[in-house]
Amino acid sequence: MEEAPTSNDALDIEDKQAMLAAIVDSSEDAIISKTLQGYITSWNRAAERLFGYKESEVIGKHISILIPPDKLSEEDMIINRIRNGLDVNHFDTIRVTKNGEMIPISLTISPIRARNGQIIGASKIARDITERLRAQEELRTHARIQELLLSAGRLLSANLDLRSVLQKVTDITTQLSGAEFGAFFYNMVDEEQRYLELYTISGVSKDVFKDFPMPRSSGIFEVILRDSGILRSDDIRQDPRYGKNPPHFGMPPGHLPVVSYMGIPVKSPSGGPTIGGLFFGHSEPARFKAEHEKLVEGIAAQAGVAIENARLYEEIKRLNAKKDEFIGVAGHELRTPLSTIKGYLQLLEHRTPGGIARELTEKALRQVNRLGRLVGDLLDVTRMQSGQLEYHMMPCFLLPLVKESLDTMRQIQPTHPFEANLPDEDIVITGDGSKIEQVLINLLTNAAKYSAEGSPVQVSVQKKAGQVIVSVIDCGIGIAANHLDMIFDRYYRVPDAGRAVSGLGIGLYIAERIVERHGGHMGVKSEEGKGSEFYFSLPLPE
Ligand code: ADP
User: Fold this and answer.
1) Mean pLDDT across 161-180
2) How far is it, in rounded angstroms, from Cα 139 to Cα 522?
3) For position 502, what pLDDT does the model report?
4) What confidence tens digit (pLDDT) does each residue in 124-152 have?
5) Which residues contact 514 (CB under 8 A, 6 or more apart)?
6) Which residues contact 21 (CB under 8 A, 6 or more apart)?
7) Nearest alpha carbon to residue 515 among 464, 463, 477, 471
8) Given the CA of residue 492, which atom of ligand 1 is nearest to it?
């Protein structure tokens, strides 16, 4: 093993200087010394490599040959600190090489002192930080890409609005690809030919395209839209397929200059013709790389799914609206002959003295009334949907409404005992009396419908903290907990519950809407096989 040098082996001054010079020369960093006036006094090999000047070219020259004109004032700041015996540590700046190239460097400058301590110059260590900055930039780009991908994923899985999905996809892919502009074109087909329809654009205003006819799906577009292929070109003007499209044969006059070009198809996950394509342009050549293509391709695949979902959703909404419209029209058509039949039956009822004919007329009338209520409910639903159901709000007594509902129920459902638990004093509410009665009839009808014959139904009314609570309690089949949330939905009926019981699944929907329109709340407590309690609250006038 080599022994550590002792003070006896002390190197003489010349050896020491030679050793220092060797260290300086072999350093990876540029090491330069200069006088306080800024004249270069030494220049190592790394400085030659970094700045491109040979030692002989720069000794005695002023340090400002390395400083870009707009950074000359930095030298005054540096010299000032040095004169005061202070260092400059890791100062990131730009210097210029012999051939005029600007390079980012990190500078550390320290004063050089003579034996007597006097400051006679400065040593300057310059490190090329191009790599470090590139790595930092790469990290930033990566983080940005991650963020964009994440937001794309979130957006595409949660959004069902087609236009906003496509706008966001266009914005994000334009950013990810570094394009100057990006656009999504729909693939349209008419009798003669396919053509494209510009749907969303990013990076430039849509006005830029407003006077241009929509491109035909031929030439380059054909690759993307008919063949579902990807096209990425460093210079699209060199592509043999470019410029084949009438009327402009290339980019229309006044179009943004496009050199780098990338087109990526957006396909439907369920097959069929390509939905459309994402197109990106840049005025400089070779801007789109394989990694951009991969990123955009990944988002285009997700976009295909999102577009399909959004389209299906729009289709469902359209069909739903059509269904509501149909129910509305059918309800109106049914109501007129129904009222006529009802009128004739009432006449018959009055004219028939008794016996079997009278009994049958009464039965027919009961069924016609039932039919009338069903049609009325259907019409109410469509009116509620379109916000056209009218309410006539006014102060009214609640207990007479409850009693009248019970009387009606005793007539139409004589198989059930209806009991009432009402307060002695009447209660005034503000509301539409006939609508509140409709709520009560709906709840009481259900209580009877979903319980065995002879099983009692009870209505109770009580005041509680500024509101009145009305409950309808039955001892019927009850409702399983997992259906409780859904029974207030339009057309929802608990599957298999009371199989033989007919209904449209709209009674509770209507009842809840009416109660909410009165500023109240509707709820249910139920246990399967034991019975249910439906209740609603109404605010009391102050
Ligand atoms: P409908 O009775 O015409 O089916 P509703 O909207 O009035 O429609 O009720 C929705 C569903 O809620 C019913 O189909 C039934 O399954 C359930 N339901 C409502 N009231 C009761 C009740 N009192 N007891 C048991 N189930 C009920």
Assistant:
1) 88
2) 55
3) 84
4) 999 999 999 999 988 998 888 888 888 88
5) 432, 435, 436, 438, 439
6) none
7) 471
8) 10
Contacts of 471 (CB under 8 A, 6+ apart): 458, 459, 460, 461, 533, 534, 535
CB 175: neighbour CB atoms within 10 A? 15
Whether 129 and 104 have beta carbons less than 8 Å apart is answered as yes
Cβ atoms of 362 and 345 closer than 8 Å: no
Tens digits of residue pLDDT in 450-500: 999 999 999 999 999 899 999 999 999 999 999 999 999 998 999 877 667
Tokens encoding 354: 């008794």
**387-391 long-range Cβ contacts below 8 angstroms, 24+ apart:** 391/432, 391/435, 391/517
**What's the Rg (C-alpha) of the chain?**
43
Residue nearest to atom 25 of ligand 1 (CA): 478
Q: Which of 450, 458, 536 to mutate to test the pocket of ligand 1 (most atoms within 8 A of CB)?
A: 450
Q: What are phi and psi of 473, to 5 degrees?
A: -115, 130
Residues 227-255 have a mean pLDDT of 72
- Centre of ligand 1 to C-alpha 368, Å, is 22
Query: Which ligand 1 atom is the nearest neighbour of the CA of 509?
Result: 6
Residue with tokens 């008919």: 226
Q: What is the pLDDT of residues 79-117, one digit of tens each?
A: 899 999 898 899 999 999 999 999 999 999 999 998 898
Closest approach atom of ligand 1 to CA 472: 23
Pick the atom of ligand 1 nearest to 498's CA: 16
Q: Where are the beta strands (DSSP E) in 378-530?
A: 394-397, 418-421, 428-431, 457-464, 467-474, 521-527
pTM (predicted TM-score): 0.59
pLDDT (average), residues 18-43 = 91
Which residues have any ligand 1 atom within 6 Å of their CB? 442, 446-447, 450, 474, 476-479, 487, 492-494, 497, 503-509, 532
Nearest CA to ligand 1 atom 2: 503
Please state, in angstroms and rounded to a whole number, the distance separating the CA atoms of residues 511 and 472. 13
